[in-house]
Design brief:
Layout lengths: L1 E3 H11 L11 E5 L3 H8 L2 E2 L8 E4 L1 E4 L2 E4 L5 E4 L13 E3 L4 E17 L15 E8 L2 E10 L5 E20 L6 E8 L5 E3 H4 L10 E11 L4
Antiparallel strand pairs: 1-14, 2-12, 3-13, 4-7, 5-6, 6-9, 7-8, 9-12, 9-13, 10-11, 10-12, 11-15
Length: about 230
């Protein structure tokens, strides 16, 4: 069984009504642990490939078709394999985990591997349980924001499907500090999604029980500059 993308977004709005601005959302965070299900539903494939070891204090780095850029005084740290929770290398951020991600063209879905360590190695600062905001942007205009937080010391996967195309996402740590979180491979799809398989959408109704809390908020705004 499948549900329409519109019905999925309506369910997101109903679930998080107390935090939503008026209007139906155009996008939803739909996955934390079902990476395979997200990739199958969205048609997304790895846009970065394996994360390289490239340096400890970088302003930006293009990996595959994705360009990662520092925000404000932060820098990107591609110096080691940070965690054993997810395969391959990952990258961290020196400072708050704020990140600009450019896809080099329009996409409708994106996702990434992610770990927030609390008791694992390489936290490197007093732990703060973090909440993140993702803004979807196209041609310099950000049209959608979503928030997520994940359970700690697990391999997480954050997947976003949008009804509108976007070419950039802005990831901001809105609650947290300079302790580390780790980012793995990024995945994208240029194919619009009209229906989402119900088994993949169903965990939406169990928000918080699978280690993910999420809200979707519609907000037209100018591109964030730091």
């Amino acid at each position: 069984m499948k549900i329409s993308f519109g019905a999925f977004c309506a369910a997101t709005a109903a679930l998080a009504a107390v935090t939503l601005l008026p209007g139906a959302a155009n996008a939803g965070i739909i996955s934390i642990n079902d990476k395979a299900g997200f990739l199958a539903a969205s048609g997304a494939t790895s846009a970065t490939g394996a994360i390289p070891i490239a340096g400890a204090s970088l302003a930006s780095l293009t990996v595959g078709s994705v360009t990662f850029s520092q925000v404000a005084a932060n820098s990107l740290n591609f110096s080691i394999d940070w965690t054993s929770r997810i395969a391959g290398n990952q990258f961290a951020i020196n400072g708050l985990e704020d990140l600009d991600v450019d896809f080099g063209g329009d996409v409708f879905s994106f996702g990434f591997d992610f770990v927030e360590p609390e008791n694992d190695p390489n936290v490197n600062a007093p732990f703060v349980d973090s909440t993140f905001e993702i803004s979807l942007c196209d041609d310099g205009l950000c049209f959608e924001t979503l928030q997520f937080s994940v359970a700690n010391d697990i391999a997480a996967f954050i997947g976003v499907i949008s009804a509108l195309a976007f070419d950039q996402v802005l990831i901001r740590e809105i609650i947290g500090d300079i302790e580390n979180e780790f980012f793995g491979e990024f995945y994208t799809s240029t194919t619009p999604v009209s229906e989402i398989p119900l088994p993949l959408a169903a965990p939406l109704f169990l928000v918080g029980l699978a280690g993910l809390s999420s809200v979707a908020r519609r907000r037209k705004r100018a591109k964030i500059t730091d």
